[in-house]
Automatic annotation (TrEMBL):
Organism whose genome encodes this protein: Vanderwaltozyma polyspora (strain ATCC 22028 / DSM 70294 / BCRC 21397 / CBS 2163 / NBRC 10782 / NRRL Y-8283 / UCD 57-17) (Kluyveromyces polysporus)
Region feature Disordered, mapped onto this chain: 1-57
Basic and acidic residues bias spans: 7-17, 35-57
Coiled coil stretches, renumbered: 480-507
PROSITE patterns given in the database record: G_SEPTIN (PS51719)
InterPro entries on file: G_SEPTIN_dom (IPR030379), P-loop_NTPase (IPR027417), Septin (IPR016491)
Keyword field contains Transferase: no
Keywords: Coiled coil, GTP-binding, Nucleotide-binding
Compartment(s) of residence: Bud neck
Name listed for the protein in its UniProt record: Septin-type G domain-containing protein
Subcellular location, principal: other
Septin-type G domain sequence ranges: 115-382
Amino acid sequence: MKSPDSGNRDDSPNTKEEEAEQDCSSPMVDLKVQISKDDESAQTEVEKGTLMKKSADNDSSDIIDEYMDISLFDVKCRRVPTISKMLRDRTIITEGYSIGIDQIPLQRERMTAHKGVHFTLMVAGQAGLGKTTFVNTFFGSSILPSVWNKKDHNSSQERTKSITCHTAQIEGYGTKLNLTIIDTPGFGNKLNNAFSWIPLTNFIDDQIRSYIFQEEQPDRIKLRDKRVHCCLYFIEPTNKGLSTLDVVTMKELSKRVNVIPIIAKADSLPKSHLTNFNREIRQIIDVQNIKICNFLNSNDPYYDDIFSNIPFNIIASENHVMNNRGELVLGREYKWAVIEVENPKHSDFSKLKDILINKYMADLVQSTEEYYENCRASLLKTRILKARDICFSSKPPLVDISDELKEFFKTLDYENCDNNGIKNYACYQLFNKKYIDELVLEWCQEYIHRQWEAKRRFNEIVNVEENKFQDWRKAILKRQEKFNNEINSIHKQIESLQIECHDLESRAISSRSGNEKSLGNLSAMVGKT
């Protein structure tokens, strides 16, 4: 509605205020328009819930109508002019005036330094390769306990075979590093190392799923984040290339985490042998298509420091020795020389430390976040599709579900799950962590292999018993045939005897009749006499 005195726009004292309100109001909130107290009719209409405005400008009235047509989640509506659009033609008041935008990165830096950086590192490899020594040397503190520091070396609890997490907070130059080290003792120590990598991959997957379900909780303040950002895989310096266990383990780990291979105890090989060993490992990695730092772009020159230096030759030591220059350094002392840990000529320790900490730690964390988002989307879609399987499958459902909920699931859009909106949470609630854990157990490679092994053994037993049964059947049939032949021969003997008996009877009858005739003739001759 227009007020009677709306002929001149500049004469209205509230026009500018009302226009500012129109431009600054968001389309997702109710538009409030100031109305003169003198206009009792307009006040009455406002009390009834009718939006009215006094203005002589037809454009202002059109904007009001446009706001009235906008709904809360209507993404198809035409967007109205915003403040950012109006400020494009702003006028600079003071040349060179700074509002402090350049301080925002520094604010971010201070926040990161105060809260700390979370980083989770997994060290994998066979026992005796110096993983504990390397970690303690790398971070300059005794994070991992050494079995050699224990008093009783014969104790049965010296070495644990389960994956263990060690946490530590390292602070330097005002920055905190919340570090988690995943130790993998007992890896590759079995006589049969088939599926030895399963505990490692299961741990990485479990941490991803755990974080997904933690984020679904209402209270997410106490989130426990143990997602693995990087895995250092220790290679034994045997000068014989990579073992089958190393190849398979790195291939499986590289699908889930950024893997960096390192040659442990590099000082145990001569320099020429070590060079050949490095070249052979790189060839095996290329041939077996092992993805090193799979979540980083290998084609980006920014990451050349990583991909051009693998594998890293590492020497670690927690002891200080005196070098040739009279300096006390970390290293190992031999009869022929002193090997320095941080000397680039002796070891790639400093290079790896520079790559892992100084340059690319944030990249490793960010790439893991991107991988996590892909896993999260995949898991959520899997839980939704399980609802579809319940509705449209003839197999009995694995979970208890009411008919009402089943009918509700039939109304969901399974082609484009995002169209369901909040309805998807019914699927998430039904297929919860307990169900997903059971489902993951069924999908486990080791579980599937054990099922296959059990079926194979069962089939072998069945085949053996079947062969025994066939042998018994053949023996029985053979004996039956023998008995039948004996019965047939006996029948033939009986038939021949019957024939002989019949002949004898015939002869006896004929001889008897002949004798009677002879006696009759004899008696006749005697009577004539």
